[in-house]
Amino acid sequence: MTSPKPLTGLVTVMVPVFNEVEAIGPLYEATKRVMDDLGRPWEIIFVNDGSTDGSDRKLDEIAASATNVRVLHFRRNFGQTAAMMAGFDHARGEVIIPMDGDFQNDPSDIPRMLEKINEGYDVVSGWRKDRQDNALQRNLPSIMANRLISRVSGVALHDFGCSLKAYRAEVIKGVRLYGEMHRFLPIYAKWHGARITEIPVNHHARKTGSSKYGLERVIKVIFDLLTVKFMDKFMLKPMYLFGFWGMLFFFASLVFVIWTFYMRTQGYFFTQTPLPMMAVFSFMTGIICGLMGLLAEMITRTFYEAQNKPTYILRSPRDSG
Selecting from 3.90.550.10, 3.30.70.260, 3.40.50.150, 3.10.20.310, what CATH number does the domain 11-233 have? Predict the structure, then answer.
């Protein structure tokens, strides 16, 4: 890996906030001390995700006292993914560092992340190696989910759910996130050819507020992972997926037809076996899969052609050595 010129421009710290009024002040002060010591320009963007506990007023007070603090207020709660998307859209830094607003992430880890960025990595992911959360409700489901995501996506990270990460803006700008897919940002970056590394980071026990997640998050992760896997393998060629299943059902219908006539030679009437109906259903399902594949191909082509989006990604000048 070539050694690029160290980045010296603006660093954006982006913090989604939802009902964390007691943690906001200490988090800002700790982050400010760390960023001031870096000796490079920085900004903090707080995204108020429809808080109802007075977090909005606290954030406005902080922003009024500092020129490098900006606050985005949502009209209602849209969720962490939407809050992070808003932060990315409004960030001006060449490096963007999201972190949680509950002060469980440690701002003192930011300099080490920036060192890794300067080594040539595009994404530095935090790993809460010694996680200070409820073992049954948070830690065990997280371990299972992370192993599943790593295996399915091919991106080997220990902690996809850790919000504390550092991104070069060029690999994250333009990425659109939906649902609960903020945890899959390293996977999206990998699709764009990003170089990813992981470092252990500090994790503090929650001192204020309450957790916004429960065991139901595991189900959401599985559904989102299916979506990500589809987009990874079949975004540009959906017909390969639908066509495969269509051919499989066509083959099944042929087997059922042959089986039906064999059963007829054994003295069974068509009305005495479900095989004819199974053959019809399999044939119709195959037709539907084929038509869905063609429709998906048309939608994909329209998506890229209407927006003049290329189906390739060029390396940036710094990657060409």
Answer: 3.90.550.10
